Amino acid sequence: MTSGVDLSSTTKETIPSGSRRYDDTHAGQAKRRSIPIGSLNVREGDDEASHPFGPVPNGWTEYTHVIEGIPFFYNSQKRIITDAYIRTPAILSRIETYYTQISGVLGSLDSTEYQLSKMDIYIDPTCDPQTGQKICAYYLVDHCRHSIAFLRQVDTGIVGLPDARNTIHLERMLRGEYWTHCEYMPRPDVDHTASARKLQGQLASLMIDNISSEGSTSPFTPEECKYYLKSVNPSINEPQFLNWSVEFSFAARVNSLLIQSQIINLHGEQCARADRAMIVTDQRPPARTALYLQLSKFMFDCPVTHLNRLEHAWTDRIIYSHHWKKLLSELIEEWTVAAGVGGLVWISNIVLFTSTSSTIALLLLGVSTIATVYGAAKALLLIRKHRSLGQYAVHGSQYLQENEKYATGLQDLSYEYSCPWACALWAGALTSISVLWMILNQVVSRVLELFLSLGFIPPYALCTGTLMLGAWTCGRVVPSDAKKITSSTKTNSHIQQYVIRTK
Questions:
Q1: DSSP assignment of 102-166, as one string?
Q2: What is the pairing mode between strands 80-82 and 60-64?
């Protein structure tokens, strides 16, 4: 596109996802008000409000987002759309000034190829956060191509877009920004019936792919696709109803999510990700060292099991919302069971402490109790931590990136996840060994008491019997060794025939 040299330096390009609609603000203080006679007309304005405002200016139409409740305004003659509150005269004056500048440049650049005059102009009067200078943020909305545009060439980093691999990737990002704009400011007079029907076909294909393939790249579960299909089904909802109200904003949001999934999976590109397990960006997990595998054996292979699950969910450093939710629920359930098992072992140890005086058994029970307490505490801390995490892919991606190491990947995280069950298993093993030791002590002591209680057997007879038992045992071992010695010194038959015997 030819550079718009006449565009003011205070006019900056922006994108819908960079909107300030979710920034904190102050609504003002409430106060006692007088109720007028008759019906209250809110369209006349309010000079006594905390933030005074007037009526909707002539030529403008005010809409309110059905879900979020944020008002936005559209001027059909000038094709201006904005979420700035133009019922405040100062804001309206700035928007009209900026429109005069933008429309002049737009007219000089317009052609049958660009068709800029058919596009809506989004204008947001704002201030530079660094200098405080008043600036105009703008972009053009192309409803024909389902994209956004600008009046001069700009770098992706300046407007807040990530780096693009190629023009296909860049076109997907601009298309995603268009649907974000439609989600934020859905115009009722824009016909999106064709887009809704196309979305219906995409959702049906994604549902079938997700049901029939384990490696589906669908961002939605079959249940989610089913509900989305019901919402955009033309046989249930009238087309004119789809273009407005909740359905229009909903269709725009789903389209935006699908575009994001297509960008992640390189949809339409030569190296597109056809299966979720494919690695197309060469972001493979680090190799597992011998030390890691040995420590994993010491922990009953729990770290390797957890690492396999984490790396499968985090393939190519991409995670889906439904996979993240499933992983969280499975981990929380696993740690809950581990804490319960540790509690049972702890109760057993307390009972066994009162029933034995053996030093070795007490030592084993003490170590087992420490392991159960640590494992249960670690399980409860992990459960509390993971219940506070978000349930969507963005939260899972942020959490895994924070715990990912350059040299070891998610191996340290797999150790942490394995502690509850490893401690529970080691505690159970130590408790079992201590019980076995106590049983052997009881058996040996009872046998000795039995022999000592038999008074007719003199002590020297017991000693003689013990010696005889030892001699018999040695006698069973020595002949087998003697046979080995004899067989090793025996002359082979083919050598024997050459020996000359003498008297």
A1: HHHHHHHH--TTT-GGGSEEEEEEEE-TTT--EEEEEEEEETTTTEEE-SS---HHHHTPPP-SS
A2: unpaired
Q: Is 286 exposed, middle or buried (0-12, 13-18, 19+ CB in 10 A)?
A: middle
Q: What is the pLDDT of residue 451?
A: 65
* Mean pLDDT for the chain overall: 85
The residues that bridge with 62 in the sheet, in sequence order, are 73
Higher pLDDT, 70 or 193: 70
Amino acid type, 104: G
For 197-236, b/e burial (b = at least 16 CB within 10 A) is eebbebbeebbeebeeeeebbbbbbbebbeebbebbeeee
Closest to 45 in 3D by CA, of 100, 85, 1? 85
In this predicted model, what pLDDT tens digit does every residue of 473-495 receive, in sequence order? 776 655 544 444 444 444 444 43
If DSSP codes are grouped into helix, strand and coil, which group holds residue 36? coil
- Rounded CA-CA distance 228/362 in Å is 62
pTM (2 decimals)?
A: 0.78
Report the alpha-carbon distance of residue 325 to residue 333 in Å, rounded: 12
Q: What does the CA dihedral 38, 41, 45, 48 come to, rounded to 10 degrees?
A: 30
pLDDT tens for each residue of 96-128: 999 999 998 998 888 877 888 899 999 999 998
Position 74 pLDDT exceeds 90: yes
